[in-house]
Amino acid sequence: MDLVAIVPVYRGSSATFASALRHPLGFAPPHRARDPRAPSVPNPRKETDMPDLFVICEAREVQEEDVRRFVLARQVEGAMVPWPILVTRKGGQFHAYENACPHDGKPLDGGQGDFLDEEGNFLQCKAHGDLFDIETGACFIGPAKGQSLTRLELVIDEGDICMIDEGLTDEDGMHLEEPDAHPEVMITSD
Q1: Distance of alpha carbon 112 from alpha carbon 126, whole angstroms
Q2: What is the spatial distance between Cα 127 and Cα 186, in angstroms, rounded to a whole number?
Q3: Helix/strand/coil percent split, the chain, to 5
Q4: CA distances (Å), 14 to each of 37, 142, 187, in order?
């Protein structure tokens, strides 16, 4: 499981930057600065009109046919709550969903980070065996048949996977207890 700091990417006429505290890497590298030799292009939108992009991870961190789990921090009714999501890549396209089965709301991976069926072709709910199409989120086998995962819109910006969501906070979510969390064990060599 990856716990990430969600930090807005601020857009301005003079500079663009993004940074995110990432577990376990620390600070993320800033976005590339604009080439001073490039011609200046006026932005017809005011800075206040631009929505904040929240960096989830670098695109290279989600490999083809891989699924990564993240817990974001989100404001709901004035309280900060954990928001478990998953991001996957298939056919070069990124897909993101809430990590919750539409049948009963439990995490698809059962908290273990294992999202795919045995063949690696479909997302699978570990609780009841529901199978979901990776590209659409639609369930075609199991108690959630006919329902779909809650799809999340992603924006790929300068090599980062980002989201636009007014409920996301700048907090890292690392101190929030995740629903159905299991204690983690770290084994180190002496």
Answers
A1: 9
A2: 25
A3: 5, 35, 60
A4: 14, 52, 47
Identify whether the C-beta of residue 106 lies closer than 8 Å to the C-beta of residue 114.
Answer: no
Q: Whole-prediction pTM value? A: 0.67
Q: Which letter does DSSP use for residue 173 in this model?
A: -
pLDDT digits (tens, 9 = 90+) for 139-182: 999 999 999 999 999 999 999 999 988 888 866 555 555 555 54
Give the span between the Cα atoms of 155 and 47, in whole angstroms. Answer: 18
The token pair that represents 142 in the structure block: 């199991």
Task: Outline where the chain has alpha helix (H).
Answer: none
Give 166's DSSP letter.
T
Q: Which residues are bridge partners to 138 per DSSP?
A: 148
DSSP 170: S
